[in-house]
Specification:
The complex is a heterodimer. By secondary structure, chain A is mainly alpha-helical. Chain A is built from 4 helices and no strands. Chain A is elongated and about 50 Å long. The chains are: A mainly alpha, B mainly alpha.
Chain lengths: ~130, ~60
């Protein structure tokens, strides 16, 4: 990847991340839950890909790389749990907003996603930003 | 396709994706959703799962 590509990627990612951080700060189901889920997915995967590229380029130490990988996987599992609660709500035909499991999963997913974003900023995977 | 190209493609397709999302967000919020609509929403939700880090590594490596 050329340096200009990386700069462009990180700038665009920072914009997406700012949007995602704003949306994920809401701990209750809003009409844009699906948008948030997908914005979060795109953002998280771009962070992971940027981290992999930086690691391959020798710009991220093994320790830093391990931290971002761990943070990503924790947030990913929380996101899977959130999706499972939404799918369960569909199975039983209930509005998920009344489900304690859903609300707890949403809180956990939002918290771990924010931690991933903040770590990405700390490690300069995302310059500037989401703070 | 590198990451920059991917983001450009995403930016152009985002309006279409958001339309799709808006459709399914209505489906899931209705207690009387038809089974076939719920099934579509479940498939859509599956698409919101993140790719495991190891898989991204292999794709990149």
């Amino acid at each position: 990847m050329r340096p200009t590509d990386l700069t462009f990627t990180l700038r665009v990612s920072a914009i997406v991340i700012l949007l995602m951080a704003l949306l994920s700060s809401c701990a209750t189901l809003k009409p844009d839950t699906y948008k948030t889920l997908n914005a979060t997915k795109v953002t998280a995967e771009q962070i992971a890909l940027a981290a992999i590229d930086l690691h391959l380029a020798g710009l991220l130490s093994p320790e830093q790389y391990g931290r971002i990988k761990t943070a990503y996987e924790r947030a990913r599992r929380a996101n899977d749990t959130l999706i499972a609660t939404l799918q369960l709500a569909l199975d039983v035909g209930q509005d998920p907003r009344g489900s304690a499991a859903y609300n707890q999963a949403l809180d956990t997913s939002a918290r771990l996603s924010r931690e991933l974003l903040l770590l990405a900023v700390e490690l300069n995977i995302i310059p500037g930003g989401a703070r | 396709m590198n990451v920059g190209d991917s983001l450009i493609a995403l930016a152009f397709n985002l309006p279409r994706i958001i339309d799709l999302v808006a459709h399914y967000q209505e489906i899931v919020s209705r207690p009387d959703a038809r089974p076939e609509d719920a099934a579509k929403a479940k498939v859509f939700l599956e698409g919101a799962r993140w790719t495991p880090f190891d898989v991204l590594e292999k794709e990149r490596g």
